[in-house]
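Sample 3 of the quickstart, ligand iron/sulfur cluster:
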Amino acid sequence: MVVGERKALSEIKEMVRPYGKILIAGCDTCTAESLSGGRKQVAELAAALEMAFRLEGKDVEILEISVDRQCIHDFLLDIIDRSGEVEAVLSMACGAGVQSLAERLPAKPIYPALNTMFIGETVSNGLWQERCQGCGDCLLGVTGGLCPVTRCAKGLLNGPCGGSQGGLCEVSAVLKCDVPCIWHLIYDRLEQLGELERLNTYAPPKDWRRGGGIGPRQLVRQV
Ligand code: SF4
Ligand code: SF4
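Result:
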């Protein structure tokens, strides 16, 4: 899923300050899962914004809506309908959802309420970690299902480097928390699978064109 983090209220407030009536639009899939942009967070942001403006003596009417996904056109129809009632829309989707909305509402100001962070996993309650950079040439089949592109601080395809100590990456000291060396984890997992010989195969440099190295990517499939 795409993990997002809500922007500071002060930043959001300045974006929508020119408007007297706005629609806050949530996304009930990815950003809801990362507790940043689902219907509950829409209600919280609406209340916080209303209060912040009221303390300044400014009346703002805030409408709320939430849809299953903002990155799929058909799911946007309810937001498009409601947008006629407001001067601007504040989207709580990821960057793809915000752009999807902006392209379908060319005459309406659309603002992002979130910072889109990464493709990740909910590891535990309140903890999300990056797991994939969408490199376009997945290596998980040869690395035991663990991604060195995303999870090695140096993106090494033939690790580990000399900074791996006791199972931890050298960035642990800088970040002041234990960051596992992903190549150590890859070794452990391949050992458990009885596939350690995979590490004898040299991984050549990746073709980063498939990872967005030559501009925006698209996927076309006959359906
Ligand atoms: S190898 Fe590429 S596609 Fe596979 S998980 Fe890592 S970044 Fe994502
Ligand atoms: S210690 Fe491990 S995870 Fe960290 S940079 Fe080196 S190989 Fe990558």
